[in-house]
Write a structure and sequence with these properties.
Layout: E1 3-5, H1 16-20, E2 26-28, E3 33-35, E4 55-57, H2 63-73, H3 89-92, H4 98-102
Antiparallel strand pairs: 1-4, 2-3
């Protein structure tokens, strides 16, 4: 089992999860984060830290989220410290169907 970031992160990207990750398993896109299944040690400390409840065990999510996390963790930059939270993050918490409307394949800044 590994943990993955789901649709609820899109346009929220709070990054509290990044701060507690002991192995630097998070990678940053323009408007969401993903977890590398190769780096994740399944400790679970990130899950309760996410205000948007976007981090879940892979066994509880649609497999498309597992594939998305795997794909983008290989091309987006590593993020190991909390960065800027989007100004409108609270407005997007709990919004449905964010992937189709807002997902961006563009990389974020990462630790750059």
């Amino acid at each position: 089992m590994t943990y993955v970031v789901t649709e609820d992160c899109i346009r929220c990207k709070y990054q509290d999860c990044v701060e507690v990750c002991p192995v630097d398993a998070f990678f940053e896109g323009e408007n969401m984060l993903v977890i590398s299944p190769e780096e994740c040690i399944d400790c679970g400390v990130c899950e309760p830290e996410c205000p948007a409840e976007a981090v879940l065990p892979d066994s509880l999510v649609d497999k498309r989220w597992v594939a998305l996390n795997e794909k983008y963790s290989k091309i987006w930059p590593l993020v190991s410290q909390m960065g800027e939270v989007p100004d409108d993050a609270d407005q997007f918490m709990g919004v449905a169907d964010k992937f189709e409307r807002y997902f961006s394949e563009a990389p974020g800044v990462g630790d750059g």
